[in-house]
Amino acid sequence: MKITDVECHVLLEHDFNVSATSSAQDGFIVEVHTDEGISGIGEADVNPWIGRACVEAPGTHTMGLGLREMLIGADPLDPRSLWERLYVGSAMNGRRGAVIHAIGAVDMALWDIAGKAAGVPTWQLLGEPARAAIVPYASLLPPAPSYAAFHETIIEWTVRAQALGFRAAKLELLYSGPYRHGALDEPDERMTETIAAVRAAVGPEMTLMVDVGYAWDDVDRAARTLRDWSGLNVFFVETPLRSDDMAGLARLHEADTGIRIAAGEWLSTRYEFHELLDHGKADVAQPDIGRVGGLTEAVRVAELAAARGKPIVPHLWKTGISVAAAVQLATVAADCPFIEFLPEQLTESALRRHLSIGTPALRPDGTIALPTKAGLGVELDRATLERFRIAEA
């Protein structure tokens, strides 16, 4: 089998809002085609125009080859070897960041092809099952016209998530800092107020996580706020400090606030996670499968975390393609208590709701069954693809 083409799609919602802190409004989709009629799909959470350029730009020397040109004619059934080819061949331009994110989308598509060609779900090619079912958490970010409206809506959404069967939810409390959401600009005490109100509404059994979106640049301020959450039973706080502030993350870990520190959504490759876990002392690793470099690299991160006795909780903020990939990873990862999940009933994004067919479904007991369909198990809804696709300039 040989790769014949790598097709990139830039997607954008027609009514996107640049003041919203949500990349669900756009999409970077890759389709890898072969001479045997088997195609694979992947996506990455990256500016889609940049992602497309990373794939399609031609190389001019051996240290900066183009991703697409390295793939044409190659055997797609050995994704690990192709990952190394792409990483080494693009190293001068890549190594981290957008080029790795683009490699991640391609790698996801290659594992989809490999599973389809073998007639098995992709996880069977990645390792042995580590659990009987996957537990998703509902990731909740309502629109934010005002604090009062957001506060009431996120309580309502969490209650609805619980009614849908979710055992866990993450509150996206992007109240302050450089990436505050919409009209929000609130003091830290508001976070505590919202968490307490949600906890009162859903009771003690539901697991709650909180994403603050890099709100703090002061470790003492962060620690003081997290101590205010004592008694609210928060499973982790996500991205309390900037991604590169390893010293600050380590200090926050050592402050012993009683709240686990989760991070890693923006990191690429196992090398950055090595730094996060060993120097930043993060308690929970959050590889985003597309951004980290695909399933090939996400499995390595899971192994890295397991060797240090730490769990992974895969991050994702895109469509059912990413959900399907996260389920494959979670099936084989040694310690993966949850995956992120975006309920179609609780999202503003039409792109997220409709792009994929066959997205893993939540069962009444709050779990997702291990995949049985070949490959990733999802397909593109072509009508939605065309609805949101931006023609190449």
The ordered H/E elements are EEEHHHHHEEHEHEHEHEHEHHHEHEEEHE
Q: What is the name of the CATH topology of the largest domain? A: TIM Barrel
User: What's the architecture of the largest domain, going by CATH?
Assistant: Alpha-Beta Barrel
The coarse silhouette is globular
> Biggest sheet, open or closed, and with what strands and sense?
7 strands, parallel
Structural class by helix and strand composition: alpha/beta
Tell me the distance between the termini: 32 Å
Tell me the number of helical segments per DSSP (H or I, 4 or more residues long): 15
The helix content, as a percent range, equals 25-40%
Average pLDDT confidence is 97
Detail the poorly predicted runs: none
Rg calculated over all Cα atoms:
20 Å
Strands across the major sheet, in which order? Answer: 10-9-8-7-6-5-11
Description:
This protein has helices at about 50-55, 65-70, 80-90, 100-120, 125, 145-165, 190-200, 220-230, 245-255, 270-280, 290, 295-305, 320-330, 350-355, 380-390, and strands at about 5-10, 25-35, 40-45, 135, 135-140, 170, 205-210, 235-240, 260-265, 285, 340, 355, 370, 380, 390. It has two domains: about 5-120 and about 380-390, 2-Layer Sandwich (Enolase-like, domain 1); about 125-380, Alpha-Beta Barrel (TIM Barrel). The chain starts with a strand and ends with a strand. The radius of gyration is 20 Å and the shape is globular. Helix 6 (about 145-165) runs parallel beside helix 7 (about 190-200), helix 8 runs parallel beside helix 9 (about 245-255) and helix 10 packs parallel to helix 12 (about 295-305). It is an alpha/beta fold and about 400 residues long. The longest helix is centred in the first third of the chain and has 21 residues, at about 100-120. The chain is about 40% helix and about 15% strand. The model has no long low-confidence stretch (mean pLDDT about 95).
